[in-house]
């Protein structure tokens, strides 16, 4: 019996509950909107930001601050250690279990985050992929150690240009995973990504927040400057002994590790964080804009408009 079947059987309601999904590029204001929605709809928030899962990473991942966390109940914020293995499959199961719990006491729940794969895992379910041989995995690891991430990026661009365009190509784990599938199967990784979503035992309303590209970029630059002022350098220095961990191979950390290794100046490292974050935001938008179910609002939204839209669609879905 599949995961969906188990969860559906355990839930005593039938399509009467609503999951509100809030997505958009980094630094656009998803956290503040989700808190307002949680307060108005008397519900709780499930984070789908994979960078915010780790308790050792606070400043560089823009985790909601203490005041924000007190304004609404959050789940999956800094609940894991960088030393623990935690996959998107683990998150799918944990998040669905948590939603079962939340929907037993509330009409609504909110899923918020910019990690498209993790949002899709909850709303659509994960796909099945072929087995990967150890030989393929070890060969790719050796290539990465010998030649760096750039070699793997170019290989992915050649074997699966479609997935290359939307994946975070600086995320070594995801690039290697896609290449493992490409090489083991002889087919593009993206060919195993299905278009049919798994049925969930709750309604889903998707809200996207966006802005003009330059506005997004300006907000990202400002956020990075704030992170630096709040102690990003000190946070990354404290994690330097663990640079090999996958969780730390992410924007905001790897650039400062390069500075600490003597490969760049600090000003350059900070500029690289801004540049790589802007590139990440572009990929986020590419991912989310392919989802026709998302209703987009400008970042200078009127909150009542969003709330009215949600209640209207929730009413229609519940009929």
UniProtKB/TrEMBL annotation:
<feature type="site" description="Interaction with substrate tRNA">
    <location>
        <position position="137"/>
    </location>
</feature>
<dbReference type="InterPro" id="IPR018022">
    <property type="entry name" value="IPT"/>
</dbReference>
<comment type="subunit">
    <text>Monomer.</text>
</comment>
<dbReference type="GO" id="GO:0006400">
    <property type="term" value="P:tRNA modification"/>
</dbReference>
<keyword id="KW-0547">Nucleotide-binding</keyword>
<comment type="function">
    <text>Catalyzes the transfer of a dimethylallyl group onto the adenine at position 37 in tRNAs that read codons beginning with uridine, leading to the formation of N6-(dimethylallyl)adenosine (i(6)A).</text>
</comment>
<dbReference type="GO" id="GO:0005524">
    <property type="term" value="F:ATP binding"/>
</dbReference>
<comment type="similarity">
    <text>Belongs to the IPP transferase family.</text>
</comment>
<dbReference type="GO" id="GO:0052381">
    <property type="term" value="F:tRNA dimethylallyltransferase activity"/>
</dbReference>
<feature type="binding site">
    <location>
        <begin position="24"/>
        <end position="31"/>
    </location>
    <ligand>
        <name>ATP</name>
    </ligand>
</feature>
<dbReference type="Pfam" id="PF01715">
    <property type="entry name" value="IPPT"/>
</dbReference>
<feature type="site" description="Interaction with substrate tRNA">
    <location>
        <position position="115"/>
    </location>
</feature>
<protein>
    <recommendedName>
        <fullName>tRNA dimethylallyltransferase</fullName>
        <ecNumber>2.5.1.75</ecNumber>
    </recommendedName>
</protein>
<keyword id="KW-0460">Magnesium</keyword>
<keyword id="KW-0808">Transferase</keyword>
<dbReference type="InterPro" id="IPR027417">
    <property type="entry name" value="P-loop_NTPase"/>
</dbReference>
<keyword id="KW-0067">ATP-binding</keyword>
<feature type="binding site">
    <location>
        <begin position="26"/>
        <end position="31"/>
    </location>
    <ligand>
        <name>substrate</name>
    </ligand>
</feature>
<feature type="region of interest" description="Interaction with substrate tRNA">
    <location>
        <begin position="49"/>
        <end position="52"/>
    </location>
</feature>
<dbReference type="InterPro" id="IPR039657">
    <property type="entry name" value="Dimethylallyltransferase"/>
</dbReference>
<keyword id="KW-0819">tRNA processing</keyword>
